[in-house]
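cache lookup: miss for this entity combination. No prior model stored, computing from scratch. Input as submitted by user K.M.:
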Amino acid sequence: MTPILSTLQPDFAKVFDRIVDARRESDSEVAGQVADILQTVKLRGDAALSDYTQRFDGYTLADDGDWLITRERCEQAYHELAPDLRDALELAAARIRAYHEAQLPENRDYVDAAGVRLGAIWRPVDAAGLYVPGGRAAYPSSLLMNAIPARVAGVERLVVVTPTPKGQSNPMVLAAAHIAGVDEIWRVGGAQAVGALAYGTKRIRPVDVITGPGNAWVAEAKRQLYGVVGIDMVAGPSEILVIADGKNDPDWIAADLLSQAEHDPTSQSILITDDAGFARQVEDCIDLQITQLSTAKTARASWDAHGVMIVVNDLLAEAPALANRLAAEHVEIAVDDPEPYLKAIRHAGSIFLGRMTPEAVGDYVAGPNHVLPTGRRARFSSGLSVLDFMKRTSFLGLDAASFAAIGPAAATLAHAEGLPAHAKSVELRIK
Amino acid sequence: MTPILSTLQPDFAKVFDRIVDARRESDSEVAGQVADILQTVKLRGDAALSDYTQRFDGYTLADDGDWLITRERCEQAYHELAPDLRDALELAAARIRAYHEAQLPENRDYVDAAGVRLGAIWRPVDAAGLYVPGGRAAYPSSLLMNAIPARVAGVERLVVVTPTPKGQSNPMVLAAAHIAGVDEIWRVGGAQAVGALAYGTKRIRPVDVITGPGNAWVAEAKRQLYGVVGIDMVAGPSEILVIADGKNDPDWIAADLLSQAEHDPTSQSILITDDAGFARQVEDCIDLQITQLSTAKTARASWDAHGVMIVVNDLLAEAPALANRLAAEHVEIAVDDPEPYLKAIRHAGSIFLGRMTPEAVGDYVAGPNHVLPTGRRARFSSGLSVLDFMKRTSFLGLDAASFAAIGPAAATLAHAEGLPAHAKSVELRIK
């Protein structure tokens, strides 16, 4: 049974510190293995991919046709989907597209008071690679959330890598690839696939940015290749913080907490409420609901190990400060007026406003990205967006007059910094 | 003597590939040492800082006063600056501030056609740490370029770490810290200082983002701490590409190329021109100018090892494609009409338009940031900006009507992905 903490208990600060600092990410010994795999892929290319795929996925990459899943196959998977599922994917795609289109940054190009032309141009990267896990965690929603922002950014070449253990692929994922307009799907996975995307092989041309979820090997490969390519923020176990007053239906809040817990035993669900009786009701509802879930084992393990319930005296006065310490991936605010909470919570991946906004609508169809910073990284990082697939080039242009106005100061600073060629490049033009 | 390549020579493609792929960054063995230092700082905190600072900087951190450079000391350094230097720093700061203020992103908050409230809020991180090298590479301009965007972003606590070998600090850097409004300056450097900023110690509270240049140890420490904190892109050796027709003064272009070469022996300067005679003149001017530089030894080493001159047949038809392959940090376009080049060059850190825009004005006073992606990273990353000190929280809010419109699709997808608690959190609210 998950203990119900109170902000009034004398050791609350200490207990809460422990919750904030707890690391649910495993310090695994994968770094060395990943470094080996990446080096091998860099040196041996496709032959290395073929070897690893045989070993890890039991799948043979021999003929040309073994390597790629064709666009025709994706289209076929799309047409074979149950109509309600196809409609749901299309609705999700359309709403994700609309939200991300509004993210497109504006270029700047202006002349300032000194007569200096200044500006910045945002452009997409040439090619993006998306990692799509095989097996249980192969989620079509995840493909949409990664691929559509890349497409909206204007990326010309969109490449998916995905392991197909014993040749099996997930038709929903293929259908999602069709909807998103993925250009290539390679049947390789693991660190070796990430290495191939970064370094390129004879078959697979390199990409500029790699995003998408994966296991510890995939995450470590991305981390090690950061700088060779751009990557999305390294993701850890998922988490939800639900801030709820006692006027909620405890069954709804229990389901919201479980929707995070069912992802993984390392997931974390936290409830903050101002009503101890409500917390006990939620706990009861969790115990009941959990028995009905096909994901019961995972949800139970997560809730027992990492579930937290905190009762505060004044919800608005106390919950935002606790939320800012936790900097959670998802924050639900299940109260009548969530507005002051939205203002006061500075650190969160995504915020779900009001009683009718369970996290699951955001995971699938609302439009904002579900790839969000975990493990308190919302303090400094953001959810996936079109910006992850773009980069900005600044530019400036001076004429004789504006050069006369600001050039001399540049020469002064260059001399002071001991960089005479910098100074000379300015002074020659002053004369 | 630097050979003059021609795009007409039969092996040009191969030679250019080698230039593009050449790695000027050393594969140093610092990773293990840095990992040790970071672990030690994490465990032993200030005591570890004290030990390392004694060992590496010959400076004793004993009394409270030994640790911090006070704001009063910075203010004093500011007042003691030569007036022309102070004015130049103030001009630079004002222009950097103005350019970065225009970068501030807009929040979004709207209700879409389905009645779903959607939006995103940009907020600054709570605290930013800036690494400022000691010794030769202690540049006040670099402090301004890192600190001002953080301040403009709204960061409340701005912390500098800088080594003070044998107690020596650079008064210009302190004056720049005064201008930028830095809150704390700690006299620690190296990987240990980066570790202290990320993990926090008893004296130094942790920060959320760490930026700023440093040696191989500092860069590796930032790389290893990526994810614990946000960092700016890992920087490699600097580079300039100058695209110039034969109508330029060869002395000006020679100075521009040398202004990059004088930074470091690993820096790279590349000239692309359509006039072979002009290229030879530039080479002669370089040979002459270099003898007059106090930085001659560095500039000579860089130009001899990494300098490149390429003669093309048609400048506008050929140079942008070569520039896109190089994806250089700085690109100067010294022609009468740089506009078509600006359109065609997709990958560059910053572009300097026209004959009167030497890179040095951008390094100091133009306004755009001089912290730019190196080593072909302009393919996927951008110069430092206010966004590096901010993060975005998405939000969404549904009411009964909008929930009825899109909720069922979320439940359909949740079931299809095998996540029943996700589905239940939606279905309970539909009933």
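stored under new cache key. Residues 83-101 of chain A form the longest helix (19 residues).
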